C-alpha cells in the first residue's frame, strides 16, 4: 500500500511546460557550421570573422560558439576608477616675475656687447675713409652692385608695358569706333558697315559659288543696270522645276551669304519665265529702294489702269483741267487731257 502513491506519481503525466518541444525532438542541424562561416563573409552580417576559430574541423565552429555563449554568461567585474582624484590634479605653483622678458633681452644685449669688445676692440667701421653715396657702387670695381638704389631694367620694362596697357584701356570709352551717320542697320551698324555697291561683285561670286556647290546646273549669276542680282538657269537642263523653286525659296530665306548681305528677293521678278527658255530669280540689295505700289502693279497689271482713271474721275468732279499721266502695263506714261 505504501508504494501506491509513488507509482501514481510516476505514472502521472508531466505538465505542458515540461513537455519536450518540437525543436528538442528534431535531430541536430548539421549544416549550422557552414552557415556560420558563410554569414561571416557576407555583407551586412552580424557574425564577425574573429568568432571563427583559426583551425577548422568537425564541430570546431559549434564548440567555439558554445564557449563564447558560456563566456558571455559570466558576470563581469565592475572596473574601478583609474584616477586618484575626482577633481583637478594638483600642481606646484611657481611664480614668474613680470620683468622676465626684459631681463632676458638685457642679458642677450650684454652678451653681444661683450663679444664685440672681445673680438673687435672698438666700434665697427667700414673700410675706407670715403663715404659712398646711394647711387655709387659698393665693393666692386666694375660699377655694378645689387645694392644700388637704381631700379631693375627688366622690372622697369614690364612696368612700362603695363602702364601702356592701362592707357589703351582707358582710351576705350564706348566700344569700337563707328562713324556717324543717319543710316543705321538693324543691329546698330553704321553706314560704313552696311553692304554697299562696291560689294556687288563679291555678292555675285559668293552666290554663284554656293549654287554651284549645291547643284550641277549651269547657273548664270550677274547684276543688272539697276544693281539687282539675277540668277538664270536653262529650263531644258531642269529635271524638276518645282524642286528648284523650293530650293530657291529656302535659299533666299535662310542662306548665310544672303542674310549677311541683306539681300531680299524681288517678288515681281521671282520664278519668272519670260519665254526665252530660261528661269529667272532676282535678288534686291539693301541700298536699292523699291516702292510697294510698283510691286503690286507688277503682280496685278489689270489694276494699273484703274488707279489713274479714278484720279481722272475725281479731278473732273472738282473741275481740275490739268492732265494726268496714265501708266500702261508696259510701264510707259501717256499724257491724256481731262476731256477725253
Automatic annotation (TrEMBL):
<feature type="region of interest" description="Disordered">
    <location>
        <begin position="178"/>
        <end position="197"/>
    </location>
</feature>
<feature type="compositionally biased region" description="Polar residues">
    <location>
        <begin position="320"/>
        <end position="331"/>
    </location>
</feature>
<protein>
    <submittedName>
        <fullName>Uncharacterized protein</fullName>
    </submittedName>
</protein>
<feature type="region of interest" description="Disordered">
    <location>
        <begin position="308"/>
        <end position="340"/>
    </location>
</feature>
Amino acid at each position: 500500500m505504501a508504494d501506491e502513491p509513488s507509482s501514481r506519481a510516476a505514472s502521472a503525466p508531466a505538465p505542458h511546460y515540461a513537455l519536450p518541444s518540437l525543436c528538442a525532438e528534431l535531430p541536430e542541424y548539421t549544416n549550422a557550421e557552414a552557415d556560420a562561416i558563410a554569414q561571416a563573409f557576407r555583407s551586412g552580417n552580424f557574425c564577425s570573422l574573429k568568432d571563427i576559430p583559426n583551425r577548422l574541423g568537425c564541430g570546431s565552429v559549434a564548440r567555439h560558439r558554445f564557449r563564447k555563449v558560456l563566456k558571455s554568461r559570466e558576470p563581469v567585474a565592475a572596473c574601478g576608477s583609474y584616477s586618484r582624484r575626482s577633481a583637478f590634479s594638483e600642481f606646484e605653483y611657481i611664480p614668474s616675475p613680470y620683468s622676465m622678458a626684459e631681463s632676458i633681452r638685457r642679458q642677450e644685449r650684454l652678451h653681444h656687447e661683450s663679444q664685440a669688445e672681445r673680438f673687435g676692440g672698438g666700434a665697427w667701421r667700414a673700410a675706407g675713409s670715403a663715404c659712398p653715396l646711394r647711387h655709387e657702387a659698393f665693393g666692386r670695381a666694375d660699377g655694378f652692385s645689387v645694392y644700388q638704389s637704381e631700379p631693375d631694367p627688366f622690372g622697369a620694362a614690364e612696368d612700362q608695358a603695363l602702364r601702356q596697357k592701362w592707357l589703351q584701356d582707358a582710351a576705350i570709352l564706348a566700344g569700337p569706333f563707328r562713324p556717324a551717320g543717319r543710316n543705321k542697320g538693324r543691329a546698330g551698324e553704321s553706314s560704313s558697315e552696311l553692304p554697299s555697291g562696291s560689294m556687288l561683285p563679291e555678292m555675285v561670286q559668293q552666290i554663284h559659288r554656293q549654287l554651284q556647290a549645291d547643284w550641277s546646273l549651269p547657273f548664270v549669276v550677274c547684276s543688272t543696270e539697276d544693281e539687282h542680282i539675277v540668277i538664270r538657269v536653262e529650263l531644258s537642263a531642269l529635271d524638276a522645276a518645282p524642286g528648284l523653286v523650293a530650293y530657291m525659296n529656302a535659299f533666299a530665306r535662310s542662306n548665310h551669304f544672303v542674310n549677311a548681305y541683306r539681300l531680299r528677293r524681288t517678288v515681281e521678278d521671282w520664278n519668272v519665265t519670260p519665254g526665252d527658255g530660261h528661269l529667272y530669280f532676282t535678288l534686291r540689295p539693301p541700298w536699292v529702294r523699291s516702292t510697294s505700289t510698283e510691286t503690286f502693279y507688277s503682280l496685278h497689271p489689270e489694276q494699273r489702269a484703274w488707279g489713274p482713271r479714278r484720279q481722272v474721275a475725281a479731278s473732273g468732279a472738282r473741275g481740275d483741267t490739268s492732265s494726268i499721266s496714265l501708266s500702261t502695263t508696259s510701264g510707259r506714261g501717256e499724257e491724256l487731257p481731262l476731256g477725253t
